[in-house]
């Protein structure tokens, strides 16, 4: 008795249709340095663009969007999860001052549904365009028997470049610097295992419209990650920043501490901002202690910039001009390399 790859659950034709559907959407992220590879096996990028650098350093990052994909699956919304991926990957590059150049993605799914795959990848491409980088390739893998037909996972990797003597980070930070917060768009893409646990235990309905929110809970939780890459680059090129901290898993203080030398602390003021209502809702329905909230969620701060005190106003004006809500979160004082609340 004969069998086939399709009988085993892999539909090659569906994969080919998905590629065709996503081609036009990927084109929105194209940069002039991208070189076409007729075979489609690799993404090509013209490195002669690096000739203007004195000592170019390549920066690379890889990440995924974790269990937020489960909410996207449950709600049948696939065109925003790609923004989360780009935010997680490319904004890590921006922390060191690197210009994002290109990105690749990887989707593993139980069954290739061409329209669904095209929506996911289209979202990645749109977000790459917002971050100023190109989506030069990717892979879709069908895993029948390992993933249910409607299940999928999403990951990616990005590459950027920064001039060696313009590298940002802890070595530039000194006592007296000011910490500026850049607002998040919501929960972003960290802490969703706890979010899903709260939903399960509390019985919260994703279609419900809690009075403290202006839209259904599911739509609020799927709000795509704000992408800060070009805003960070604008700050870096203005000379008004010493370091950045991307606020992801671990929360504000743990991520900010990664951008401090061992000789200083960052002292933050909780009273400087009010976290978006979604965090209070999750905390209340999940009975989550404040310490757990602090180490799990961004609480409304998606990126932090550490700037010289005499450039803080300049940095705030630049961010305002770029429509990025920002405020003074705290200051840098002599210490031991920690970030804490006053």
TrEMBL record:
Catalytic activity: 2-formamido-N(1)-(5-O-phospho-beta-D-ribosyl)acetamidine + ATP = 5-amino-1-(5-phospho-beta-D-ribosyl)imidazole + ADP + phosphate + H(+)
Keyword field contains ATP-binding: yes
Annotated ranges, domain PurM-like C-terminal: 175-338
Subcellular location: Cytoplasm
Pfam families membership: AIRS (PF00586), AIRS_C (PF02769)
Pathway this chain belongs to: Purine metabolism; IMP biosynthesis via de novo pathway; 5-amino-1-(5-phospho-D-ribosyl)imidazole from N(2)-formyl-N(1)-(5-phospho-D-ribosyl)glycinamide: step 2/2
Gene3D superfamilies linked: PurM-like C-terminal domain, PurM-like, N-terminal domain
Top-tier EC class: ligase
HAMAP family: AIRS
Entry protein name: Phosphoribosylformylglycinamidine cyclo-ligase
Gene from which this protein is expressed: purM
């Amino acid at each position: 008795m004969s069998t086939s790859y399709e009988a085993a659950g892999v539909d090659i034709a569906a994969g080919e249709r998905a590629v065709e559907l996503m081609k036009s959407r990927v084109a929105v992220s194209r940069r002039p340095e991208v070189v076409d590879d007729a075979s489609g096996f690799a993404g090509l990028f013209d490195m002669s663009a690096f000739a203007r650098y004195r000592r170019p350093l390549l920066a690379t990052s890889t990440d995924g969007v974790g269990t937020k994909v489960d909410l996207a699956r449950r709600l049948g919304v696939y065109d925003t999860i790609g923004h989360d991926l780009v935010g997680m990957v490319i904004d890590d590059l921006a922390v060191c001052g690197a210009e994002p150049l290109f990105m690749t993605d990887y989707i593993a799914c139980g069954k290739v549904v061409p329209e669904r795959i095209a929506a996911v990848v289209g979202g990645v491409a749109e977000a790459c365009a917002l971050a100023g980088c190109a989506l030069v390739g990717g892979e879709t893998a069908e895993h029948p028997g390992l993933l249910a037909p409607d299940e999928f996972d999403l990951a990616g990797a990005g590459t950027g470049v920064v001039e060696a003597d313009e590298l940002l980070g802890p070595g530039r930070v000194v006592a007296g610097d000011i910490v500026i917060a850049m607002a998040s768009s919501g929960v972003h893409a960290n802490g969703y295992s706890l979010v899903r646990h709260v939903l399960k235990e509390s019985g919260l309905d994703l279609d419900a419209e809690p009075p403290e929110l202006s839209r259904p809970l599911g739509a609020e939780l799927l709000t795509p990650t704000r992408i800060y890459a070009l805003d960070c680059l604008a700050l870096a090129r203005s000379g008004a920043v010493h370091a950045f901290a991307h606020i992801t898993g671990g929360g504000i203080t743990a991520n900010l501490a990664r951008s401090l030398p061992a000789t200083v602390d960052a002292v933050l003021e909780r009273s400087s901002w009010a976290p978006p209502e979604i965090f209070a809702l999750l905390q209340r329905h999940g009975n989550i202690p404040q310490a757990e909230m602090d180490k799990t969620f961004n609480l409304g701060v998606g990126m932090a910039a550490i700037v010289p005190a005499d450039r803080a106003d300049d940095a705030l004006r630049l961010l305002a001009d770029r429509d990025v809500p920002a405020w003074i979160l705290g200051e840098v004082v002599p210490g031991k390399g920690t970030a804490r609340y006053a």
